[in-house]
Amino acid sequence: MPEATANIGVVGLAVMGSNLARNLASREGNTVSIFNRSYEKTQTLLDEHPEAEFVPASTYAEFAASLTTPRTAIIMVQAGQGTDAVINALTEVFEPGDIIVDGGNALFTDTIRREKAVRETGINFVGAGISGGEEGALNGPSIMPGGSDESWVTLGPILKSIAAIAEGEPCVTHVGHDGAGHFVKMVHNGIEYADMQLIGEAYDLIRRGTGKSPAEIADIFSEWNRGELESYLIEITAEVLRQVDAETGAPLVDVILDQAGAKGTGAWTVQTALDLGIPVSGIAEAVFARSLSSKPAQRAAASDLPGPSEAWTVADADKDAFVEDVRRALYASKIVAYSQGFDEIVAGAEQYDWDIKKGDIAAIWRGGCIIRARFLNRITEAYAADPGLVALLTAPYFAEALTGTQEAWRRVVVVAAQAGIPSPAFSSSLAYYDGLRADRLPAALIQGQRDFFGAHTYKRVDKDGTFHTLWSGDRTEIESAGSSH
Ligand SMILES: NC(=O)C1=CN([C@@H]2O[C@H](COP(=O)(O)OP(=O)(O)OC[C@H]3O[C@@H](n4cnc5c(N)ncnc54)[C@H](OP(=O)(O)O)[C@@H]3O)[C@@H](O)[C@H]2O)C=CC1
Ligand SMILES: O=C(CO)[C@H](O)[C@H](O)COP(=O)(O)O
Question: Which ligand sits closest to the CA of 11?
Fold first, then answer.
């Protein structure tokens, strides 16, 4: 058995785990023990990075023996059964007081279950969302840990040392107990889906409306990245659009199959929002758009269905104005996506009794993560000014931004519908905005219909109480006991 020389260990050495292990090893005072189910990845990491002075382990028992107590291990394995398998193995060889951190993309309800089960053994379990992909894991991710206050005391300094730094602050905060960290990471990914879909719609409209090439559109995105839309996703969009395929000489984007993959976190965000009763419509449309793209048989079968009778292009003289309209529509829709995401965080915190500081979440998303963006500072400021803010998009900064963009947003949605260009996230975000600001909604009619067929009752605008109309009788109204449902 090896001597206990490592203060931290990493289990799972695929892209994320190996880079996180290197990140940890590069920090003063850390000695990192590494373990992977198949030893091949451990050997590769040892061979490629001797400077990291890793302590390799080939069994879980060796891994445990290599760690100083209390032992701290970060798991970076395939979420689901892989995570359970590693937790079971580690609980066999760890002792009370040790800490197991799951840094994978676990479903937060799994994390709640695992935390409870592991806690019963006396070992601490922390579900920590980690964002930033391969590069972030190496140079500094945004980290969203849940778990107990006790674990945070040991883990906080380690995570702070490897996290991204934004404006001098490490992009990590103790989000809340048990599954809070993975809940927030899930919503982060939901917003990521919406952001990516909105960027895709902007690109599609500009390309089909103006006939600009991907490289020319890349320049537009680079320009946008110097303004209020500045973000990692806008930046990498320009990079992707500029890339030329070595084999064909065509823009890479034109040779990539247009079927978007998904590992599930976007769908979890929407499923959870449905359970919580939170309308995350922009995020949902982004998830559905990926599903639609990945239905080749249905798309082929529908490809002969008619579209608009007239072809659509933007006149040369109007092209700059159209591009600016699309930029504004993108910004407005992005505000909606973040507002919906934060609504879900508020509802989740209430449901699961987590004391989540919304401003702190926006602050730790400013660096390291995939949705890092300039305007996250504005979100932190909005919650600092009003911690009880009922909807982010009503905060003065965002309300003003929407005032300045909403006319352009409408023009873009109209033109997209007339041209037959799908813009589900742009249009559903606008519908959400209009729904929220409406004085009256047709929900009143829905309540009437529900009362008609199911005696579900309704409330009135002019007096308290719960009412039912005797639809199959003389249609008089009666006051009903109990509340409407
Ligand atoms: N890739 C990314 O950009 C991001 C990923 N994540 C999350 O981080 C985690 C790691 O991601 P990534 O690095 O891409 O790796 P993968 O999700 O591809 O997982 C591969 C790793 O899991 C291990 N593994 C799978 N099943 C088991 C098991 N039953 N027992 C032990 N080990 C197992 C594999 O070991 P072996 O080599 O033996 O097969 C390998 O080390 C995932 O949860 C992912 O969702 C989070 C943020 C970004
Ligand atoms: O967590 C991540 C980024 O934050 C991962 O990259 C995740 O895989 C992205 O989700 P999907 O694969 O469904 O696009």
Answer: 1
Note the ligand closest to the C-alpha atom of 133. 1
* CA atoms of 21 and 34, how far apart (whole Å): 7
Residue 10, token pair as written in the block: 């990493």
Q: Using one digit for the tens of pLDDT, what is the confidence trace for 47-68?
A: 999 999 999 999 999 999 999 9
Structure tokens at 203: 């690109």
CA angle 260/236/194 to nearest 5° reads 50
Q: Whose CA is nearest to atom 4 of ligand 2?
A: 131
Specify the ligand 1 atom closest to the Cα of 133: 3
Catalytic residues: 185, 192
Token pair 């978007």 is at which residue? Answer: 260
Q: How confident is the model at residue 1 (pLDDT cuts 50, 70, 90)?
A: confident
Q: Which numbered atom of ligand 1 lies nearest the CA of 37?
A: 38
What is the distance between the terminal CA atoms of the chain, rounded to a whole angstrom? Answer: 64
Tokens encoding 294:
């990945």
Spacing, Cα 79 to ligand 1 middle (Å): 7
Token reading at 15: 């892209």
Summarised one tens digit per residue, pLDDT across range 185-205 is 999 999 999 999 999 999 999
Which of these, 126, 102, 139, 131, lies nearest to 24 by C-alpha position?
Answer: 139
What is the CA(105)–ligand 1 centre distance, in A?
Answer: 9
Query: How far does the centroid of ligand 2 lie from the alpha carbon of residue 218, in Å?
Result: 23
Q: Model's pTM, two decimal places?
A: 0.96
What is the three-class DSSP state of 100?
strand
